[in-house]
Design goal:
There is one protein chain. By secondary structure, the chain is an alpha/beta fold. The protein has a domain of 172 residues: NADP-dependent oxidoreductase domain (TIM Barrel). The protein has 12 helices and 10 strands. Helix 2 packs across helix 3, helix 5 packs parallel to helix 6 and helix 9 packs across helix 10. The longest helix is centred in the last third of the chain and has 17 residues. It comes from Kocuria sediminis.
Length: 313
Amino acid sequence: MTTIPRTDLDVFPLNLGGNTFGWTSDRSTSFAVLDAFTEAGGNFVDTADVYSVWGEGHTGGESETVLGEWLAARGVRDDVVVATKVGSLPQRPGLGRDNVVQALEESLRRLGTDRVDLYYAHRDDESVPVAEQAATFDELVRSGKVRAVGLSNYSPQRLREWFETAEREHLTVPVAIQPEYNLVGRRAYEQDLAPLAREFGVAVFPYFGLASGFLTGKYRTAADLEGRARGGAAGAYLNAQGLAVVDALVGVAEARGAEPTTVALAWLLAKGVTAPIASASRPEQVPALMAAPGLALTAEEVELLDRASQPFA
């Protein structure tokens, strides 16, 4: 377990992504995934109000609803650290104060809870000054409905402005960032965001840790993508440079008797992230995720993967 900075929230260093709940996983399968995750020692689940608005016939809120029903059915709300996000739901867009306050109330209802443990601004709203955003999220923390604040998809400049404003004005300082980061998506995080994370002492919970499933090694040809819900996203990496990374991953995995999925997530942990986010559409996928914190890659293995993924750095 690891403690999120400036909080009393202890989390297993693998953050289960909830984007599949009610989308690629129906309600019963989502329950099975959550059961497998918590039975293996997991306790940290990430969702968003917008999940899964992109699904056919969906309007958003599906993931939060399924998660809330599971929390109630299992009676484990106090044992699970719940993260959700605001700002991307089409009917609740942006980070204006009134919109965020109302969006939080709606998320709380769907989740069946009286507080969100980690509440993210899902993406920056440049129409709202950072100082106003920081004041709104501070208000939510002071209300007791939010325990800690996180930021996702912000520019380095606006991230810095939020941290410095919060510290100067004695507002709630964000405790986490959620950037995109993986073996085939290194540049933006390593060059621009990692230095800020270190400077301000925040947790890092990267999304797309498996590059939409590409780093599981199951996508090697265009035919492998056919009929897959995330085939389009994974297909963006299906080129010589991407496949070279997969080859390196598979080599390390075979040598260690592990899954490529496990190695890809272990590489993120070796790079110093707090807990990578990864999702599972079926319970049998969960063990490979949960094995990552226990797989300590050697310096040579990290160097091999760094070298293979250098075109993405």
